[in-house]
Amino acid sequence: MLSGCRRALPAALRLAVRGWAGGGGRRRVSTSWSPVGAAFDAKQQRSRLTGQSTGLFGVPELSSPEGFQEAQEKALQETEQLVQKACTTPPGPQIVMIFDQLSDALCRVADLADFVKIAHPDFAFREAAEEACRNIGTMVEKLNTNIKLCQSLKQLLANKEVMDSLDPETRQVAELFMFDFEISGIHLDEEKRKKAVDLNVKILDLCNQFLIGAHLPNKIDKHILPEHIRYNFAVEGNYIQIAGLHADCSDDLVREAAYKIFLYPNAEQLRCLEELLTSRNHLAQLVGYNTFAHRALQGTMARTPEKVMQFLETLSERLFQRTLKDFEMMEGMKKKLNPQNSKLMPWDHPYYSGVLRAERYNIEPSLYCPFFSLGACMEGLNFLFNQLLGISLYAEQTEKGELWCEDVRKLAVVHENEGLLGYIYCDFFQRADKPHQDCHFTIRGGRLREDGEYQLPVVVLMLSLPHSTRSSPTLLTPGMMENLFHEMGHAMHSMLGRTRYQHVTGTRCPTDFAEVPSILMEYFASDYRVVNQFARHFQTGQSLPKIMVSRLCESKKICAAADMQLQVFYAVLDQLYHGEHPLTRSTTEILKETQEKFYGLPYVPNTAWQLRFSHVVGYGAKYYSYLMSRAIASMVWKQCFVQNPFDRAMGERYRREMLAHGGGKEPMLMVQGKRKRRIVLFL
Fold first, then answer.
1. What is the pLDDT of residues 465-481, one digit of tens each?
2. Which domains, ranges and CATH numbers included, belong to the chain?
3. Where is each Peptidase M3A/M3B catalytic domain found (predicted)?
């Protein structure tokens, strides 16, 4: 999953470029680098303890929560200067560069704050970061409706002679900046522009509120639950707190209780969702779109909600018969294990699909975990990137105050010829108040700076892995290993999307293309030739037997149709919520109808799954992107890597033709020349 700004004056935190040997030169090797595998299997990697605190991510102001205010003020002062400069500069490539600097100045605070507000263990830091996000976000919306600023860009776009002289990337970025103005209502009168700004700020607040509510536990009087299942949940006095679905629990009653209690409707959260959807629709119609989905899909590969629905309905039709067979198998297994209550329910799908896989292929996760220590998996990624792209990962010692938690690791990404490419901060371990969500955050996008130096990209990968124990390093299940590869795919996209402008660097591209590199990495994680390079028993050093890898890969086909059908249901629901308003029924009634039509398992009365649908915030009207990106990733795998997952020539081609462009080239142009499946041709 991705997080961070993408279009509306997107991200870049300007940190000092360290180890630079001069404009266009190679970055020097650092003596503070160490092997990546050992760093993750070690108990702890300490920062330097002496000297002055460098501040979060090396930003001096962020040595304390109060520093966010100082960082904001600096960003806003620089913004004012750049706006004046943009409004007085004649049409030319310099206009695009100034706009990109403007975006960089604001988002060097916004993107960092976007991460800190949900991940920092200190509440004061989270609170200060959230305030910074709101203030910078408000300024961004004001700039997106600034007539004079827009006029300077319009003059450039209207000058055919100058536009023809620009390189394709600069033209694309200029058009994207104009697109931001247009979807923000630049064409409206002053009163309506102000209303658009107010709506955007309101939507930002509602998104934050909804995200918080989506992760809050529900509690119930413990005496309501049978005594023999209470130990599965957190008990506080006379109450039991349920913070998730307990989908992997073997006790049907535990899963049923968790499902019904965790998804029980919360009136305040329901009001928040309804107000968010209504506000998004008002904004879309105010700036000239029929629905929010029409506005959100501008600039994507799909382009319109009609084509998205065509894609989803066709996919659902193709899955239908296979999904029914999957449900029949699950119900048969439930009847075998629980003959008294054999009807298949929504809380059964994840568990019984897993039971079927385990029974048919003997893939009990505990058999695999000893072969997947975190250090071994990181060495596996290191080997793969080295073979495909000439890239190595090194652990780098951090400075005092640079990290928000002592178990975070910092990786330097180094190319064999180009030197240091950027940094990945790995926030991999569970802790209190940390979201249980695997995610990639852009902290700083790469760009060519005014002094000729290249601003190195910085990202954070956030996972929720268990800590090491006295007897073993952190051990991953096959699913955790696959998720690690997925998120590292996003990180490599950020490292290698080396564009001139940070507005389109790395993952700053259409959402339905941004998931392609990450999903492609899942194919590598399922290939024995790749897994065999790193899967070693942490005690004996024995390689993971090929038959175990083969069974694991084959097992993924079991109930795959039902798993994908569930994703189709989520994607259709997302489209309906962001379609025509006012909604003809309540969000819960729409959920019930859509679940029965596009999923097949019955709706459970007095539940409201949509109130836990956190993707509605970052992926509003774009949840289909996972499915569309999977189709494209499958095509890339089969055409480029299925014969040899370590093919250097194909790796370089993949970098050159897809990763390197970020959002600076239309995704369909990058996909052209490859045989497109019918499912992709709907575009």
1. 999 999 999 999 999 99
2. 56-187 (1.20.1050.40), 369-543+647-674 (1.10.1370.40)
3. 246-673
